[in-house]
Amino acid sequence: MVIHPDLRQAARPASGPGRSPEARLAEACGLSLAIDLNIVAAEVIRLNAVKPATLIGGGAVERLRDLIEAEEISVVIVDGAVTPIQQRNLEKAWNAKVIDRTGLILEIFGERARTREGQLQVELAALSYQRSRLVRSWTHLERQRGGFGFLGGPGESQLEIDRRLIDERMVRIKRDLDDVRRTRGLHRRARQRVPYPVVALVGYTNAGKSTLFNRLTRSDVFAKDLLFATLDPTMRRVKLPSGRDIILSDTVGFISDLPTELVAAFRATLEEVLEADLLLHVRDVSHPESEAQKADVEQVLSGLGIEMATGDDGVLPSTGKGILEVLNKIDLMEPEQRQSLLDQARRDPPLVPISAVTGEGCDALLAEIERQLAANRLVVTYHLGHDQGGAVAWLYKHGEVLERADNDESAELMVRLSPTDIERFERMHGRELKNGMTESGGKHLP
């Protein structure tokens, strides 16, 4: 059984825009289905106030107990935060296992993580969650000894042992994760030396990021109509229409009310987002809560220090990170809604409507990615001798050659390159400038 406790408006804290209790219940059911639970009943429980002992009122507890017994329900998912004492009381009243939203998401993450890094991050989050619940875990062991309390009773002893074991394990995991981050940093620096621009897919869970990733990279990353189908970051090379190569990164999906333990634990995974040259915010525009999901993703990105404001042409100023909105699943929309969205996208170039399943709009997406990346590139002019064929080939491969003039002794090339490419080329092939200067090897034009 899945229940969503819904506080009345007067007692409810501020939440995402337009997110209805029914939509939250549907999302909780989706999370439950992600770990193959068989949902017998699902219900929104209206609350005037939170009951400290049981979260919901006594009448609701009794009514649900009868339903749980009649349907032989063994697990109850509560879509919200449940304190240890509330969990214990509800399990006693219902004679069933009670799992709150954090526990459910941790269960999904534990089942899906495949890489060593993902497994470490999940275990760290689970231990942090478990540690907060130790206080009530040993209430059946009461303190029995007298004296001044220096030794403590068996309950206290077991509690301290468990806490110490968890703390020691958390220290080891954090040390291992630091090693993983260093390794990822080395890989990132190696990519910067190549270098290819990195484009990262971000978005709400189940927005279709992995399906789009597979479509653009022609690979077979696990993609399914499930929440949190992707946990471990995956990277592949993609060729743009001009022939330029980029690296596309598929990342973990975001979700509303993500447990704080998981935000901290998955920081290393999100480092790929922080280092990306361009972000593709993939949205499920067929979802009724699409705008609310967009706000949740923007809130997470803002928490990572990524500004969301764009310029008039949809490209961020040089001080920010480019973000391109990809409106996915247009194949699931009604014809009128779909046409309205296509008309809006024509008026607003940063919006790219696509269907990752059918491939519609994917060519336009690649062209827009190229335009966004080119907006941050500089035009440089180089003089290269005819014996520098390798340098010329490098410019053709990594940049966009706008003009070329050949004479008997050399070739003059006007090329559009990223600042990183300019730095690398001039380090490897520094040559005379058009005006005869020899300090940097190129003439930077507006």
Automatic annotation (TrEMBL):
Tell me the compartments it is located in: Cytoplasm
Q: Which InterPro entries match?
A: G_HFLX_dom (IPR030394), GTP-bd (IPR006073), GTP-bd_M (IPR032305), GTPase_HflX (IPR016496), GTPase_HflX_N (IPR025121), GTPase_HflX_N_sf (IPR042108), HflX_C (IPR045498), P-loop_NTPase (IPR027417)
| Keywords of the record | Cytoplasm, GTP-binding, Magnesium, Metal-binding, Nucleotide-binding
Question: Where does the record place the Hflx-type G domain?
Answer: 197-377
List the Pfam families hit by this protein, alphabetically.
GTP-bdg_M, GTP-bdg_N, HflX_C, MMR_HSR1
Region of interest (Disordered), ranges: 1-21
The UniProt entry's sequence similarity note says: Belongs to the TRAFAC class OBG-HflX-like GTPase superfamily. HflX GTPase family.
Q: Which HAMAP family match?
A: GTPase_HflX (MF_00900)
Entry's PANTHER family?
A: GTP-BINDING PROTEIN 6-RELATED, GTP-BINDING PROTEIN HFLX
Give the multimer and partner information.
Monomer. Associates with the 50S ribosomal subunit.
Protein's UniProt name: GTPase HflX
